TrEMBL record, chain A:
InterPro entries: AB_hydrolase_1, AB_hydrolase_fold. Keywords: Hydrolase. GO terms for biological process: lipid homeostasis; phosphatidic acid biosynthetic process. It comes from Phytohabitans suffuscus. This is Alpha/beta hydrolase. GO terms for molecular function: carboxylic ester hydrolase activity; lysophosphatidic acid acyltransferase activity. Pfam families: Abhydrolase_6. Residues 34-247 form the AB hydrolase-1 domain. The lineage of its organism: Bacteria, Bacillati, Actinomycetota, Actinomycetes, Micromonosporales. It comes from the Bacteria.
Automatic annotation (TrEMBL), chain B:
The lineage of its organism: Bacteria, Bacillati, Actinomycetota, Actinomycetes, Micromonosporales. This is Flavin-binding monooxygenase. It comes from the Bacteria. Signal peptide: none annotated. It is a single-pass membrane protein. It comes from Phytohabitans suffuscus. Its cofactor is FAD. InterPro entries: FAD/NAD-bd_sf, Flavin_mOase, Flavin_mOase-like, FMO-like. Pfam families: FMO-like (PF00743).
Length: 265, 464
């Protein structure tokens, strides 16, 4: 735990307009709010597609935030991981009760950083892209044309085949891919080179979910991520990287909410 | 969750009254910012908490509805947001750099709701006595605020005192004060600048409150004298386009030697603010950082516009006038004494805090009683930044210390003798701070947090 935080004190992250999309249950059952954090290129819309309504239907107030430069949030071409984490913490602290953070893809990397600045009730890392060379290697092998430009500050392009299983109709998948934006060049580089996150405050339980057939996150990365938090990953074979948009989106979100109900939170 | 005391059976007795045993629960005195963060961090570390609050709401001094609240209508923060917010619950991005006091209250209320702290607070209940009991435990006697109803005593594993130190006014015994026919008000009772409209006003005190009130008087009163004991450094709220404390920390992080930092900042202030003697103010008799920082952009402005006449210290009061140390006399209708507050712990025997004859508690890191390992005080510091982050880490250290005591009593004992009992009184300031009654618990946020970091790391190490 680091008490001296000159970064936070001397150069606070500048505010930017922030998009938060929400679906709340009709009746407040006292369940904790869940805040979804999309990965690079995605915005809050990715969760607004299915997961928000579904979580609200099960009694959880559900929210999704677009980190700056993503979705409907303000532009931020020079944003760093720290700025994204700031957006997540701001969104979390603006909700009436202690929240559960759910980060997808590189959003999990952002959530890890947010956990050091906000005592979440629990955290879920879904298909977490926590960076490192193994993930980079896999991406280069599968999609060199979309990955290599990112080294030079270009946009990291993920293909339809990396993100979705074959169960998603081509037209729909194309539609999603068309909506993807980009993270800042700096944040993309930080995927490869970043300091380890500070330890989470408040000791929240952490769940890792993913798919062994994910073409972005290799299974070994899932296992090692889960091991860091003292558990094993919860796996959904046959699904692509974008668990929340894939044809069988219902299974992972139900598993996450079950875990929360069972006292993960 | 707090269990109702009705379920407890009283098997213990003290002074002929039953004592209800609350087991491993920790008692927190006060639900102001320090009390709230104590509840939150103790809960986060797995403790049951009973908090007693004499008022009916949270926020302590920041809640202007409370009769002991020192805030006045225009009070704004002196430290900017990053230095004021809890490190794990930021203030909203769309708030200004220096929020108004009502925003601070709503922030504290949101904090209490967000972390669900209110169920642990017994509102309208004041603490009458806190006495040591067997086994390093504490008997806490409470009653309804105002003295109604019977007193009840509960026994706790530990007590965290968070009763604040800005509520008991300090009014110096000026000679002739009783004969003075004008109105004398302590700043704690001052709320609204309308009280000053058209009056001749003397404001005593060069602290942040005194300067704020002098500025209001400059706009409302027909005349305003501002009396200070010495010349001070007046930092503006913004320096080089950013909040002054953020600028200061940008220098601090360079880890320059103190002398160089003092020179640099004095140089900057001279460039930005100018030579104060031009305004008829005295030259500071000390270096910057040696007194609690005064941050006010408007004071010099109003002195420059003739709205405020800076004058020296008070020598004595007369029937219709006030004599100053330079021999001049001023004739105010209203005197506002912004002469500060004194910490008070009337429910606790002075020995418990090893207090000096003047009533200054002598605590390890201004927080831990050296005599009683299960007694701690939260928030008894004045810092060159905001208080809330410091109290946050204080209460984290307290919670971790109590956890270690419970989990590994022997290692906790070793830690205590090594880290706490031995360490002499220290001041966590870089500069040699003036030795006046308001400065004994002055700390520099970086030095103090480094010391807390060492303790928290030490506790983690002892636990492993």
């Amino acid at each position: 735990m680091r008490l001296i935080r000159f970064d936070d004190w001397a150069s606070p992250v500048p505010p930017v307009r922030r998009e938060v999309r929400s679906a709340t249950p009709e009746l407040d059952e006292g369940k904790p709010p869940v805040l979804f954090v999309p990965g690079f290129g995605h915005g809050a819309w990715a969760f607004a597609e299915f997961w928000l309504e579904h979580a609200a239907g099960r009694g959880f107030p559900a929210h999704a935030v677009s980190p700056r430069g993503h979705g409907g949030s303000g532009t931020a071409p020079k944003a760093s991981l720290r700025a994204y984490a700031h957006d997540v913490v701001q969104a979390a602290a603006s909700l009436p009760r202690q929240v559960v953070l759910v980060g997808h893809g590189a959003g999990a990397l952002v959530v890890e950083r947010a956990l050091a600045r906000y005592p979440a009730r629990a955290a879920v890392l879904a298909a977490p892209v926590l960076g490192g060379w193994a993930t980079f290697g896999a991406a280069v092998r599968r999609n060199p044309g979309g990955t290599l430009p990112a080294i030079f500050g270009g946009r990291l392009r993920l293909s339809r085949r990396q993100l979705f299983s074959r169960e998603v109709p081509d037209a729909v998948a194309k539609g999603y891919v068309g909506r993807l934006g980009r993270a800042s060049a700096r944040a993309q580089w930080q995927l490869l080179l970043h300091r380890a996150p500070e330890p989470a405050v408040g000791d929240p339980p952490v769940l890792v979910v993913g798919s062994p057939d994910d073409r972005v996150v290799p299974p070994s990365a899932l296992t090692s991520a889960a091991r860091r938090y003292g558990g094993a990953p919860l796996l959904f074979p046959g699904m692509g990287h974008d668990l929340m948009l894939d044809a069988r989106w219902r299974e992972p979100i139900d598993a996450i909410l079950d875990w929360l109900e069972k006292g993960g939170s | 969750m707090t269990t109702s005391t009705d379920h407890d059976s009283a098997t213990l007795w003290r002074d002929g009254r039953p004592v209800y045993d609350r087991g491993e629960t920790v008692c927190v005195v006060g639900a102001g910012p320090s009390g709230l963060v104590a509840i939150k961090n103790l809960r986060e570390h797995g403790f049951g908490v009973d908090c007693y609050e004499r008022e009916t709401g949270v926020g302590g001094g920041w809640n202007w509805r409370h009769d002991r609240s020192p805030v006045y209508g225009s009070a704004h923060l002196i430290s900017s947001k990053p230095f004021t917010q809890f490190p794990d619950f930021p203030m909203p991005d769309d708030w200004p750099d220096y929020p108004h006091h009502s925003q601070v209250l709503s922030y504290l209320e949101r904090y209490a709701d967000h972390f669900d702290l209110r169920p642990h607070v017994w509102f309208g209940t004041e603490v009458v006595k806190v006495e040591p009991a067997d086994g390093m435990r504490w008997d806490v006697t409470t009653r309804s605020t105002g003295g109604y109803g019977a007193e009840r005593t509960h026994r706790y594993a530990a007590v965290v005192v968070a009763n604040g130190h800005n509520w008991s006014p300090n009014l110096p015994a000026y000679e002739g004060l009783d004969d003075f026919k004008g109105r004398v008000v302590h700043s704690s009772a001052y709320k609204d600048p309308a009280e000053l409209r058209g009056k001749r006003v003397l404001v005593i005190g060069g602290g942040n409150t005194g300067c704020d009130i002098a500025v209001e008087a400059a706009q409302q009163a027909s005349r305003c004298w501002h009396s200070t004991r010495r010349g001070y450094w007046y930092a503006p709220k913004y320096l080089l386009g950013r909040p002054a404390d953020q600028f200061h920390d940008a220098i601090l992080r360079l880890r320059l030697p103190l002398r160089l930092r003092q020179w640099l900042l004095q140089r900057t202030l001279r460039l930005a603010v100018g030579d104060l003697r031009r305004f008829g103010m005295r030259r500071p008799d000390h270096k910057v950082f040696e007194t609690h920082p005064i941050v006010n952009s408007q004071l010099i402005y109003h002195v420059g516009h003739g709205g405020i006449a800076p004058v020296p210290d008070i020598r004595r009061f007369r029937q219709y006038s006030v004599e100053l140390t330079d021999g001049t006399e001023v004739e105010p209708d209203v005197v506002i004494a912004a002469t500060g507050y004194r910490p008070r712990f009337e429910f606790l025997a002075p020995e418990a805090l090893a207090a000096t004859p003047e009533g200054r508690p002598r605590l390890h890191l201004h927080a831990f009683s050296r005599r009683h390992p299960t007694l701690a005080v939260a928030g008894l510091v004045e810092s060159d930044s905001g208080l809330l982050p410091l109290v946050h880490w204080q209460t984290v250290a307290i919670a971790r210390w109590l956890r270690l005591r419970e989990a590994a009593p022997q290692r906790a004992g070793e830690f205590w003798t090594g880290a706490v009992a031995k360490e002499a009184d220290r001041r966590w300031t870089g500069a040699k701070v003036q030795d006046t009654p308001r400065h004994w618990f002055e700390v520099s946020h970086v030095d103090y947090l480094r010391a807390l970091q060492k303790m928290i790391d030490g506790l983690a190490g002892a636990r492993a």
